[in-house]
């Protein structure tokens, strides 16, 4: 039932457990690598719910090295990506999973979840909803990025640059999360291009991470699953293989 509710918003979503099982199975089938040969980084929000709902089988990989800050943007930058790159097994691969997150309640309300120990729903992602609220109220100032609230200010600027798209959307928090995914995807591509990896493959997996209420677990819908062969420079799209039954 929980998956059916999530799929009203994300039609190709799977539970986190199924997501990771398919991920690891596809990698083993397509490039012949076992989980222990994969150095795993994630660019996800630092929200505690993501740690609580982290898929256990993902821990069969090495890592994770955390690239993300608020709403999954890779705030560690070039320095963090380079540090992570030097941890990969020489006979293995780098796998980078990146995703903004969003909550969906049992009732199908998007942008909220019912958290452990609380008596009412709370925002998820709180940073995205906060930035959206400021966008709606016209309180985001162009170019205003401060050292005191750098990550939140960065998200605000990302939303401000897509103001019309977000505000005209049928569901604003859904659209803001799509905008956030695109910003993360673009930044990850730049960071990967600027980094040298001492291995043969870099696997890029992008999607939306979906938090359910406290007894629902988590879900994910992939948008990208590419394997880059660093020796040839060619990229292989493995998304269709991932979704094969």
TrEMBL record:
Pfam family, one: LCIB_C_CA
Record-annotated Limiting CO2-inducible protein B/C beta carbonyic anhydrase domain positions: 16-228
Family matches, as PANTHER family: LIMITING CO2-INDUCIBLE PROTEIN B_C BETA CARBONYIC ANHYDRASE DOMAIN-CONTAINING PROTEIN, UNNAMED PRODUCT
Name the record gives this protein: Limiting CO2-inducible protein B/C beta carbonyic anhydrase domain-containing protein
Native source organism of the sequence: Sphingobacterium bovistauri
Lineage summary: Bacteria, Pseudomonadati, Bacteroidota, Sphingobacteriia, Sphingobacteriales
